[in-house]
Design brief:
Helices cover about 30% and strands about 35% of the residues. With about 160 residues, it is α+β, with helices and mostly antiparallel strands. It has one domain: Gcn5-related N-acetyltransferase (GNAT) (Aminopeptidase, 3-Layer(aba) Sandwich). It is globular and about 35 Å long.
Length: about 160
């Protein structure tokens, strides 16, 4: 397995994996496949051009099998915070440490950013495996939003987690 930052040259494989995860695991993400599928390749490529913001991809045999995103808050009073988003590994590639490796690399890169003090993330409460992974890397729950995500007629709570750097 090889992990690297995705660039605008990866826009098509990223888009494919992102749509896959949103369709396959709709409860795990606050974005919907319907909304994401409307985004243009140019807007997705722009997202992958970030300087402090980044998306990491995990590759096996030249195939993108996992990803995780990071973005830093932009306003002056919040620039000490960064966010981990969109962690996903294809089902056939799970249970081999790929998600952990992606998160460790994202945390390592985030620690290098000047004056970044906190990493935040949200996890829908049904995602117990993901929550255990986050906890094993030092994240702790600091809050819970009831009915944070609505899919069809069903609501799901989301927990918010923090890692002090």
């Amino acid at each position: 397995m090889h992990i690297r930052q995705l660039t605008e040259a990866d826009v098509e494989i990223y888009r494919t994996l992102r749509l896959t995860c949103l369709c396959e695991s709709p409860h795990a993400f606050t974005s919907s496949s319907e909304e994401f599928s409307q985004r243009t390749l140019d807007s997705i490529a722009q997202q992958l051009r970030g300087h402090e913001n980044f998306t990491l991809g995990a590759f096996e045999d030249e195939q993108l099998v996992g990803m995780v995103g990071f973005y830093r808050e932009t306003v002056l009073k919040l620039r000490h915070k960064g966010n981990i988003v969109s962690l996903y590994v294809r089902p056939e590639s799970r249970s081999r440490g790929i998600a952990r490796a992606l998160l460790v690399e994202a945390i390592t890169r985030a620690r290098r950013l000047p004056d970044l003090k906190q990493l935040l993330l949200g996890v829908v409460v049904t995602q117990t495996t993901a929550k255990r992974l986050y906890e094993s890397l030092g994240f702790s729950v600091y809050g819970r939003e009831p009915h944070a995500v609505k899919i069809g007629d069903e609501y799901f709570d989301e927990e918010f987690m923090l890692l002090n750097l």
